[in-house]
Amino acid sequence: MEWKSSSLASWLLFLLLLNILDILLTNPAYEANPFTLYFWGQIGIFLSSWIKIGLILFFGVLCVAAKKFAMPNEWIFARKILLGSLVVLVAFYIFVVTWNVILFVSFVRAFKSEVRLLHLSTSTTRKLNFV
After folding, report:
1. Buried-most residue among 4, 67, 93, 128 (CB within 10 A)?
2. How many Å apart are CA 92 and CA 64, to the nearest integer?
3. 118 falls within a domain
4. Counted domains in the chain
5. Interior CA angle at 59 toward 53 and 60, to 5°?
């Protein structure tokens, strides 16, 4: 297997990595996609995550099948279509993962500041109760 910058396998593995990062960093409280929210409500987040990973793997099987069954002159065209689709999906997932990282960092900062304020308010209340 060749690992060129335009290799389908490298783009597919990068898409799989981004998909896993998306799953790990998604905060359900900030999800805006109504289809995803409906899907999570019906089958749950865990099964939905496995389906997302399975769809990426199915796309990989589709790429392998296209290479195996296409004639050499058809494979050139099919490869361009599959590579273009992968590039668009990777670009989309880069945006999604970046957005999820921004939300994750802001959520962690907000949570830490709330914990700090809660700790300060309880310590102040304890001091006032003992006075």
Report:
1. 93
2. 23
3. no
4. 1
5. 95
Q: Are the CB atoms for 90 and 15 separated by under 8 Å?
A: yes
Domain that holds residue 22: 8-97
How far is C-alpha 57 from the chain's CA centre?
A: 14
pLDDT in tens, 55-80: 999 999 999 999 999 998 999 999 99
Q: Which amino acid is at 125?
A: T
* Residue whose pair of structure tokens reads 């006075």 in the numeric block: 131
Would you say residue 103 lies in a domain? no
84, part of any domain: yes
- pTM, whole model, 2 decimals? 0.72
Amino acid letter, residue 31: E
Query: Could you tell me the maximum CA-CA distance found in the chain, to the nearest angstrom?
Result: 87
